[in-house]
Amino acid sequence: KGDEKGPILIYRKKGRTEKELLKANDIAYPGDLLQVAYNFSGQQYGVILSIDGRGVVTLHYPETETGSTKLEPRQKVGLKSAYELDDAPDFERFFFVTSQKPIDVKRIIERAEHLAAKKEVTGSAPLNLDTLDKDMKQNSILIKKGDRK
What we know:
Blueprint: E1 8-14, E2 18-22, E3 27-28, E4 33-38, E5 45-52, E6 57-61, E7 77-78, E8 83-84, E9 91-99, H1 105-116, E10 137-145
Parallel strand pairs: 3-10
Antiparallel strand pairs: 1-2, 1-4, 4-7, 4-8, 5-6, 5-9, 9-10
């Protein structure tokens, strides 16, 4: 199911060993465990973060703001820990920012927080990376939030 060749992959854990690849605009629910993975595309460094429907920014890779942004040069690299969706409304949007040079994680988080403050475009607009590094690339995937009533 889905295309595992994209730059950023979001899997929903189902049971102990099964997982389901989510596509853009698929629905996930509070409490779902999501596993984030990336495919190496030649860019040497990367940052993965998400913005939820409340405007909260969560860093997924590296694990800390001061961690290395070096990417592993192989396909389908899963992050060390899964991410449990909270009850924030509407969506969780994951961003994968890549570069040939080490990335200043704090500056990427600042750009994400700036986008998160513009609620009307958080789900669709790109991060403004223009003044950071003209060679940076970004990809994102939006997962809609459902309500299990």
